[in-house]
């Protein structure tokens, strides 16, 4: 394989310089650009597309490394990315799981794969379209997936979570709009629609009152529920099977 033109994204200055020097010393990599934020990485890729990107997951800008990769691959489809991180934060594992990144990537723990001679094979595999995830990270991503399948709030953005909790308390759209500082109550109606869609309620009923009631039940029960045509609630058990669910008495 020819020399790999690489973009390095690392927000720690000394580590960024050390990695750049170590990678180039392998004779397989040419670091054509190095930066510290996801926003800068996006600009660099649009200005001069690298062959691959080596990116820390935790970055100094508004975007973390996963969000940056998603944005970059929207413009440069399946651009190979090798992620590394020392973080054990569910938010990053959740972001990765939801990113839709299926191939041309590796995701490893920084403590296990920081040496340049270990990184280069990962970069080469990503360029070939293969994918690799560190077993430690894979187990954490799977744990987050299982948790999210039971936690309805994990499907909502922060403002949607706030609306859902007030909805479950019987607060009207007008009251929610006032509490949250919105002038237009239609903003809350639209947010309700996003909640119903995220929880699969928009697919099973066209009656907003029924969807609102079921959303309130989901908040109260603290788990994602489905209803059949007869109105019987169901949930997913730990094995992934759909089973009937007995609601908690009010």
Q: How would you sum up this structure, described in words?
A:
Helix 4 links the parallel strand 4 and strand 5. The protein starts with a strand and ends in a 6-residue tail after the last strand. Strands 2-1-3-4-5-6 form a six-stranded parallel β-sheet, sandwiched between helices. The longest helix is centred in the middle third of the chain and has 16 residues. With about 250 residues, it is an alpha/beta fold. It contains ten helices and nine strands. The protein folds into two domains: about 140 residues, 3-Layer(aba) Sandwich (Rossmann fold), CATH 3.40.50; about 90 residues, Winged helix-like DNA-binding domain superfamily/Winged helix DNA-binding domain (Arc Repressor Mutant, subunit A, Orthogonal Bundle), CATH 1.10.10.10. Helix content is about 45%, strand content about 15%.
Shape: elongated
- Low-pLDDT parts are none
Helical coverage, percent range: 40-55%
- If you compute it from the alpha carbons, what radius of gyration comes out, rounded to the nearest whole angstrom? 22 Å
CATH topology category name of the largest domain: Rossmann fold
Number of helices: 10
Strand segment count = 9
The profile of the biggest β sheet is:
6 strands, parallel
Strand order of the largest sheet: 2-1-3-4-5-6
Structural class: alpha/beta
What is the fourth-level CATH superfamily of the largest domain?
Response regulator
Number of domains: 2
Task: Classify the beta-strand content into a percent band.
Answer: 15-25%
* CATH class annotation of the largest domain: Alpha Beta
């Amino acid at each position: 394989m020819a020399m790999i033109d690489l973009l390095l994204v690392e927000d720690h200055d000394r580590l960024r310089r050390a990695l750049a020097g170590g990678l180039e010393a392998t004779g397989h990599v040419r670091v054509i650009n190095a930066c510290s934020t996801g926003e800068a990485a996006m600009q660099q890729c649009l200005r001069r597309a690298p062959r691959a990107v080596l990116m820390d997951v935790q970055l100094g800008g508004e975007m973390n490394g996963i969000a940056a990769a998603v944005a970059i691959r929207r413009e440069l489809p399946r651009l190979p990315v090798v992620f590394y991180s020392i973080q054990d934060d569910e938010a990053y594992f959740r972001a990765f799981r939801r990113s839709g990144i299926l191939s041309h990537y590796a995701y490893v723990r920084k403590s296990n794969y920081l040496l340049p001679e270990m990184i280069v094979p990962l970069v080469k595999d990503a360029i070939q379209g293969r994918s690799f995830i560190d077993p430690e990270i894979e187990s954490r991503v799977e744990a987050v997936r299982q948790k999210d399948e039971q936690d309805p709030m994990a499907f909502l953005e922060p403002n949607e979570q706030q609306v859902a909790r007030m909805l479950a308390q019987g607060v009207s759209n007008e009251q929610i709009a006032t509490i949250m500082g919105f002038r237009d109550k239609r903003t809350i109606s639209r947010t309700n629609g996003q909640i119903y869609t995220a929880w699969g309620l928009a697919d099973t009923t066209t009656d907003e009152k029924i969807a609102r009631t079921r959303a309130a039940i989901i908040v109260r029960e603290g788990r994602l529920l489905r209803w059949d045509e007869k109105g019987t609630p169901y949930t997913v058990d730990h094995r992934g099977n759909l089973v009937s669910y007995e609601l908690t008495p009010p």
